[in-house]
Amino acid sequence: MxxxxxxxxxxxxxxxxxxxxxxxxxxxxxxxxxxxxxxPTADSLHVGHFVSLMVASYMQKAGHTPIILMGGGTxxxxxxxxxxxxxxxxxxxxxxxxxxxIKKQVGRFLSFEGxxxxxxxxxxxxxxxxxxxxxxxxxxxxxxxxxxxxADCYKNRLANGLTFFEMGYMLMQSYDFWHLYNKYGCKxxxxxxxxxxxIIGGVNLVRKFNKNDSYGLTFKLLTTKEGKKMGxxxxxxxxxxxxxxxxxxxxxxxRNIEDASVxxxxxxxxxxxxxxxxxxxxxxxxxxxKAKKVAAFEITKIVHGEQxxxxxxxxxxxxxxxKGNMDTIPSTTIESNSSILDAIxxxxxxxxxxxxxxxxxxxxxxxxxxxxxxVNLIITDDMLNNELILKKGKKGFTKLVK
Length: 402
Hints:
The chain is of the alpha/beta class and 402 residues long. The chain has 3 domains: 4-219, HUPs (Rossmann fold); 232-321, Tyrosyl-Transfer RNA Synthetase, CATH 1.10.240; 331-401, Structural Genomics Hypothetical 15.5 Kd Protein In mrcA-pckA Intergenic Region, Chain A (Roll), CATH 3.10.290. It has 18 helices and 15 strands. β11 (365-367) and β12 (370-371) form a beta hairpin. The longest helix has 21 residues, at 164-184.
């Protein structure tokens, strides 16, 4: 049987490994427990978590046991990686609520049944009641300030004011690995490439306690060809919660990705075979649109279920053809006699009236496919009584309802 590392490499997931030869041998000879961490700083996962859950799913399908660590304890501090300012501190109640919401979404990717069923743990269970002196004597003595400050997650924050509070994050995350190693026999920590320093900290901590079979792996971030993170929309993050990002909006995002990203997205966010993906993407010109439709459908199916993916596809086809059922197109509720500027802001197509005016003046706004030129237009009750589709450019759509 092929080593799962080969599958992850072939699909373009792997960025860095602490010891590829050692990990490869471990995975050849054993079915292991591994973990990925999610800090519950919101009540939903977003596309930034998607890749890690797909990697976890591939690992589970290969017979390994996923441990999903909810950072109920570490969320009290906040990971400084990639941040220019200290993260907003959440209350215990907010963190607990977020943890419960995220648990439900994880089930879309992993199985909680069978011999290698997924395990969900919350590090608040072992971090919140730690004795500070005991912890620092045992764990703090294993880390040197010079090495910590050389890590990107801290080095990039020094100019803006890195707090000692935040420096504790690496110690806490490293302790998580040590705890999971002892309780579940967890041998591998995985995360996004921005977690490399924290993951190395955990691997080294386990090894300092005379355990030589701990490993770390990071996977590539999902980016555009310009290197920008994917998953940002006009309304903000692309959430996996249908109440925050509707299945239709989710589908449309992937339907409209740039041509150069299609193959990578299909490899990293679907379960289609690489042969299928190659056939879909080794094409020229507008033929790539077929691959985009497949990508949008398959990704939406994983996150929102097959029926929602079918409905989103039908709605998209209806919108572009002008025929068919428009009921699944996302709607925005506005009051009768609202101004067009207020409607544009309410839909999230603009954040201010000035920005909304600019969109209109540039010909970027239409109602039922008619360009709007009047920035003082009022959307009357009669208009709302009929089907009214507000569009921004070619890719932003919403149905206005009262």
